[in-house]
Amino acid sequence: MRKLRFHIPIAIFSLMLFCSMVFMIFSAKGQSKYQFNLIARIDTSVKFLSVDRLDNIYLITQKNELLKYNASGKFLYRYSNKDFGNDFQIDVTDPLRVLIFYPLFQQIIILNNTLSEISRYTFNRDVSKRITLAATANDNGIWVYDQNNQELHKLSNDFIDEYSAGNIYQQTSVKVQPEILITNSQFVYLYDKKTGILQFDRFGSYIKTILVDSLNQFQINNEEIIYLDNNSLKRLNIQTYNLQPEPLPMKNIQQAALGNKILSLSTGNQVYIYSFNSRN
Fold it and tell me: pTM of the prediction?
């Protein structure tokens, strides 16, 4: 029997090949390199979400209560303080020393791992300062930002002022009004929505400014800045500035917090806890 041969014109073949390549590229971009598995859902309306290095989850509710859950979504502890108003920040860098800061009252409260108060301190003793941000340092100390003098201060764990890093305007020639303060073992980061993220060394000396999108919240993981943007988790390498978007397993996300083995996502009314593994 005579075999029939079909010849595809070169132009059509090239078009088919191009379309195939485009499909593969966009499919790769839309697929996460991680496989997410839903562990639990917490039916609580939250204003803020965070995860510590032990994968405990912390929620600030609409009633301004601080709730703590384990990685499986089991409720553990609750903290509530109505003496200092509804405006407060939390830092869970150290699970054994959870920091709460009330900027309007210039009050810091330290909680232990069961969310029981172990110490507190007020900055109202020095009227020349106006502390607007506070974060846990790597040696059980505290970093604070003084907006009046545009200075970072390092405090000991018993709130003694160890040293000031100097006026930021004199170091950068930029006036800042930062909204977020984050630290790790090596660096201190201040986020100003007009300027970007200012990076300082562990002594508070200015290093550089990192230009980023407008942020409501971000994390530092090794050499990456991690933040939520349009239902994806973006990873910005601090050294190379390579930006890697990571698609997430659900939509309508308002907040995201990445732990060591879990990812916690909030839609505002509910919190979802996922485990994740790299795809083979």
Answer: 0.86
